[in-house]
């Protein structure tokens, strides 16, 4: 009876299988396309912007670096209103300080007519904000803007009432401070809205 020179012929099967798998993997990987360093991922949809004062998730511009015409028109109108409101704030402070100066630089009749003009113009700006066409996605921003300018309008009325009252000046001065704070808040909200829209602020 002839003897088998290799009593365990099956022990060579596993190394051959492993060798075959390695060879297959090598040739398969060589056939894959190479990744290009220029490849980029482009995301779409909305841009989330967190800012102080209540700004929220907003749509970007047109997606190609430009701002949607409707959004741009909205921003342009806000900037015009903001500029007018800042001028009214400067006038309010000037009248208040002139009336309080010692000796008095602005007499009562002049202070009354100028504060009344500030109140009337602030009311008109508040009405303009309320009637604006708000682009989709900017409702929360616009609500913050509306709140700020409504407070300014109320403070302007309080300042005029304080001037006309028998109060020694505390009510008027407090109202002027509130008016100044409200106009500052409106300016901040305009900046927040421009940021959400992807519009650069003018330095």
Task: Describe this structure as you would to a colleague.
By secondary structure, the chain is an all-alpha fold. It has helices spanning 13-30, 69-100, 108-130, 139-164, 170-197. The longest helix is centred in the middle third of the chain and has 32 residues, at 69-100. The protein is rod-shaped, with a radius of gyration of 35 Å. Mean pLDDT is 81; it is low at 35-65.
Q: Please tell me what the overall shape is.
A: rod-shaped
The topology string of helices and strands comes to HHHHH
Strand content: under 5%
Radius of gyration: 35 Å
Oligomer kind: single chain
The level of helicity is 55-70%
Count, helices: 5
Residue ranges: pLDDT <50 for 5 or more in a row? 35-65
Category by helix and strand content: mainly alpha
Instruction: Give the terminus-to-terminus CA distance.
Output: 103 Å
Q: How many beta strands in the DSSP annotation? A: 0
Q: Mean pLDDT score, rounded?
A: 81
What profile does the largest beta sheet have? none
